[in-house]
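I am writing to request your help with a piece of structural work I have in hand. I set the record out below, with my sincere thanks for your time.
___
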Amino acid sequence: MLYSNKDLKKLILPLVLEQFLAILVGMVDTVMISGVGEAAVSGVSLVDNINILVINITAAMATGGAVAAGHFLGQKDSESAGKAAWQLILFSLAASSVIFLMLVVFHRPLLYAIFGNVEAKVMSSAVTYLLITAISIVPLAVYNSCAALFRAMNSAKTTLLISILMNAINVIGNAILIFGAGMGVAGAAIATTVSRTVAAIVIFCMMFQTDRQIHIKGRLSWHINGRLIKKILYIGIPNGVENSLFQLGKIMLLSLISTFGTYAMAANAVCNTLAGFNVLPGQAIGLALVSVAAVCIGAGEFEQARYYTKKLMMIAVISISALSAVLIGFSPWIMKIYHLSAETEQLAIQVIRYHAVLAMLIWVPSFTLPNTLRAAGDVVWTMFIAIGSMWIFRIGASYVFHSRFNMGLLGVWIAMTIDWAFRAGCYGLRYRGHKWEKFFR
């Protein structure tokens, strides 16, 4: 077998901790920025929706590169894996530079087109935050690319340690610049930009270490290798389109939820945070599965790819079920932390309990299983299923439940799980066959 239990543990545990750290620091960030005022929090929140869209694009490219490198590792071809790694970094630099320039040049038209009705103070905060954090897009793209390559090498501990460094710089920078220097939103943006830049420099330098399975020392060339770029983009573009439209759909649903009233918006915000914790192990295991399946498929070991897919899915189900049990049993006490009104608290408890039950049953086949299909190169089909299901069931059903049945926030979350169920069925049927195995090339 290509991976022992020790290898899987070495890969999964750091990823779980890294995901947990990202959510935790995100919450701390919000609390620290809230000290500046509501306009600052709102402005940063608006820009974060755009930033997540950009991050999804760079992460998709990173996944494409990691899958390509993983295939070469499975074939015991470290030379080609290193060349693919450098082409990924080179392309990420070019693509992120274009995105950076577009955001800087068109930042005002973009913000006014999406959020034109917000107050002047909120828009001012959004402009400041977007312009400064746009600088971090290039280093973040490099970081995401290198981090994906380290996961392909089963070296997730390295990315965890660098993530700890990055988040520590971010939090300390926030404290110094927001509270010490009184720089407000600009201080938060500078701290974020500096932390991402430092992390990118550190992990990029580590890619030159020749004792690693994948390294770029002696492989630097400004020549674009069309064959390798095509292999990376074959995975990256459909994945990027899927992730981007998914984020766009979430923004549309936020617009719908905003019409339900303040109490529904507050309940949705709290439930989103708790839902993130609920499926956190599944997200981490999904990242691990991309790397594991890519190496197995590269080696031509499709039966091993199926074995590890089943094994990792079972671990994800057990982990999510344990967290779901906690949320179902203790949600009334957990809600007390947020100091919600009685109406908001009751709605939040109802929604998060519903989410917890359905997450146990269908989240894993909806979001973990398709990573094996993507690792094999079956990306166009998974993209169409994800996009179609998102817009027909999650968005379409949400509007129907609201307009016809007046189901409010719970209706939106029910529509979301209908989306999950459809995906799970489609991915399961595809996986049971062998057509996806023929995409590897």
